[in-house]
Amino acid sequence: MTPISLLIITRNAASQLQACIESARDIAAEIVVVDSGSEDGTIELAEQLGARVVSAPFMGFGPQKRLAVSLALHDWVLCLDADERLTPELREGIRTGVPGQYSAYILTRRNLFFGRYLRHGEAYPDPCLRLFDRRFANWSEDAVHEKVLTSHPVGRVAGDLLHDSAMNLGHYIDKQNRYTTTQAAMLFAAGKRASIAKMCLSPAARFIRFYFFRLGMLDGVAGLTHILIGSFFAFVKYAKLREHWRTESHT
User: Fold this and answer.
1) Distance CA 169, CA 89 (A)
2) What does the pLDDT look like over 132-149, one tens digit per residue?
3) How far apart are CA 27 and CA 4, in angstroms?
4) Which of 8, 53, 123, 134 is close enough to 118 for a disulfide, judged by CB 3.0 to 4.6 Å?
C-alpha cells in the first residue's frame, strides 16, 4: 500500500498514546510525534513505541499540526490525536481503499462520553478529515477548531475513529473552557461582537438542533449532558467575547 506517515501532537499523553499508536501501526510506514513539553513520560514512551519525536513549543492546534505534516517523510499523512484510535474496520478500510481516486479522506468519529460512545446529536456522526496527501491539502492556521483545507474532491473511509474525548466530566469541562477562551480571543481579534440576542439564541438553537433534530435524546443521560454542556459553552464563548470588548473600552 501507499506509505502513510502517522502524525500525532502530544502534551502529557502517556496514558493514551500507546493505544493510539498500536491501533494504526499496521498501516503506518513511520510514526512522528510532535510534543510540546510533556512531563509524564510521553516522550520516552513514544520513542519506545518506535516514534520519531520532535519537541516544539505549542503554537496552537492548527500551526502545531502543520509542523507535524512538514516533518513527515511521506506525502500521505494520517493525523490523529493521542486520545483517538482506529477500529479494525477503519484500519482495513484505509489499507484497501487508499489512495484510491481521492487526495483526502474523511473519517467518521465516535466520541466517548459518560462511559459510552454516543451515536447521535453532535457527537455522531462526527466527520473529520484526517487522512490526506499533503501536496493537495493541509491544516488551517486556526489555533482551535482547526480543519484540513483542500480544493480537491474528498472521499470517505468505512469504519469508525474512536475518540476517548474526556477522561472525566471535570476534564471535559476544563477543555471546553480553554477552547472558548481561545475562540473568544480569535473573534475579538477579528472585530466580531456578541449581542444579547446572540448570547441567548445561540445556545437555544444548538440544543434544539442536536437534541431533537439530530436525535441526541436517544443517547439518554449521556446525550443530554453532552448537548447541555455544549449549549452552555456556546453562551460562555460570547460572554467572554463581550468581556474582551468591555475590557478594551476601559483601557
Assistant:
1) 29
2) 999 999 999 998 889 999
3) 7
4) 123
